[in-house]
Amino acid sequence: MKWLYDFSYLTRAIHEGLSARFEPGTVVILEMVLVGITFMLLFALLGLVLVYAERKVSAVIQQRLGPMRVGKWGTAQTLADVIKLLLKEPLINKDADKFLFNLAPFVIMIAAFMAIAALPFAKGLHAIDFDIGILYVAAVSSLGVIGILLAGWSSNNKYSLIGAMRAGAQIISYELSVALSLLTIVVLTGSLQFSTIVESQADGWWIFKGHIPAMIAFVIFLIASTAETNRGPFDLAEAESELTAGFHTEYSGLKFAFFFLAEFANMFIVAGIGATVFLGGWMPFHIGSWEGFNAVMDFIPPIFWFFGKVGFMIFLMMWFRWTFPRLRIDQLLTLEWKYLLPINLMNIVLMAFLSLMGWHF
Amino acid sequence: MIIFSLMAVTSRRILRAAVYLLFALAGTAALYFMIDYQFLAAVQLIVYAGGIVVLIIFSILLTTHINEKLEKPAPGKVFITAVLALGGFVLTVYALTQHNFVVSDLPQTEATVSHIGEKLLGYGEGGYVLPFEVISILLLAAMIGAIVIAKRKASDS
To answer: Is B106 domain-assigned?
Structure first.
């Protein structure tokens, strides 16, 4: 059971096992392939689970039952949907730019894969532990918007184009708030490395230790990251009543599934970053000197803590989507540039002052 | 990377050219990753791939139509640019082959973010705080200029 608490045993065992059989170069390639397959499986699984969760959460909020027919409580519904999507004909319209049209879904997926590689899932379960963790994630997640813009343009469809423009403007502006709210916590940790950030929360999560500015940063992060993943109430990029489906109107079959999966994957990544930076990542919940309580919390393996926190963040985002009305594009940009950004900048100064005076815990 | 750079210049569809440029820039970032200089790689991705290419794509989206193709440039112009580019290439290669690279025996310094930050804001020996502040004033001036230009246009129309 030791490996459940510290995955470095597992990863070291795999590494030693491979090193015993192959040459060092081959080992590196094999390990990369292994990590890639793991993330692909994780994404596929996440897609299944999150689509089902989204439909059930929305059903509960709207006092419906949601999917109930396929499997017990409709649990096999998303599986059936996946099979349906796989069997559909991949359509390309006649005047589309075929090369870019086919490229766009892959750009979005590549950005998602690159971003998830930096997330620490549990102790020792970490694909790459960059010294520049948060900066890296900000860099690669800014690539995703290119996929959206390309998809909208190459479809040769006015709805797609308008959707892509809206999504682009939205993502570029809200990226700033996401990065700045994360920086507020980086002021306290003094490091951009995810493993260091998690370690620094062993005696309490930053959202509690950093009290007021950390709370403000957390709220801003929630709003901005919901907007960055193009989800409601900020989903006007694909406002179905005006733009049919926005930038992915013309996509069908597997390529549509890619966009759909990327949306949920991005939601998971954003929730994962939020959970890591604000809620302590895989660190268990500890209260000061309550030894017994802390021991019980330690008993729960880190990976469950991580997925529990991510699940909580995702639930919050779904809650937003199904309870708030959609914003207009001007309201959206006003919210970012006139409210969130100034508050954020002020908050960073406040946090720096707090950290200088040592008023945090 | 070289292939993509060539394609970026020769493609007659402007958005495709922008995408090839993106690939070339991402390739540069990958090179930085391979020499373990992660900070520069991430900055390359943020500034060029995430910032400049997105800006280029945005302006293309606003100004051109999908069926538009760029005209073929005149053969004389192609010839002159090719000669100039080749000349530059030959000159660079010549300089590289002539230069005698010395293996430095200085201890390897780690280029971590904290090192870079301390150097950038350091006012002691080898600190860069003055250039940093000068550049920030320049950036501020550029931003104010952009806002002024954008505002005047709005009041005219």
So the answer is: no
User: Does residue B148 lie in a domain region?
Assistant: yes
What are the tens digits of pLDDT across the range A92-132? 777 777 778 888 888 888 888 888 888 888 777 777 777 78
In this prediction, residue A100 carries a pLDDT of 80
- Spell out which residues of chain B touch residue A164, defining contact as CB-CB under 8 Å: 61
- pLDDT of B87 higher than 90: yes
Domain residue spans in chain A? 2-357
- b/e A183-210 (16+ beta carbons within 10 angstroms → b): bbbbbbbebbbbbebbebbeebbbbbbb
pLDDT given at position B141: 94
Residue at B96 is within a domain: no
Together in a domain, B154 and B121: yes
| Chain A residues whose beta carbon lies within 8 Å of the beta carbon of residue B60 | 153
Chain B residue nearest residue A94, CA to CA: B67
Whole-complex ipTM: 0.73
- Whether B83 and B115 share a structural domain: no
Per-residue pLDDT at B138 exceeds 90: yes
- State the total domains in chain B: 2
Indicate whether B2 and B78 sit together in one domain. Answer: yes
Q: Does A130 touch chain B (CB under 8 A)?
A: yes
Q: Does A157 touch chain B (CB under 8 A)?
A: no
Shared domain check, B3 and B49: yes
DSSP per-residue codes, B9-20: HH-SSHHHHHHH
Cα(A127)–Cα(A125) distance, rounded to whole angstroms?
7
**Closest residue to A146, CB basis, from B16, B54, B112:** B54
Residue of B nearest to A98 (CA): B16
Q: Is residue B97 part of a domain?
A: no
Domain that holds residue B138: 111-157
Residue with tokens 């080898």: B126
Residues in CB range of A96: below 8 A, 6 or more apart: A154, A155, A156, A250, B66
Same domain (yes/no): B84, B119: no
Tell me which chain A residues have a C-beta less than 8 angstroms from the C-beta of B58: 149, 165, 168
For chain A, what's the residue count? 361
Residues of B in contact with A103 (CB under 8 A): 19
Of the residues B66, B67, B143, the best mutation for testing chain A's interface (the one with the most A CB atoms within 10 Å of its CB) is B66
Whole-prediction pTM = 0.84
Q: How far apart are CA A159 and CA A53, in angstroms?
A: 29
Chain-centre distance of CA A68, in angstroms?
A: 28
User: For residues A126 and A123, what is the distance between their CA atoms, to the nearest angstrom?
Assistant: 8
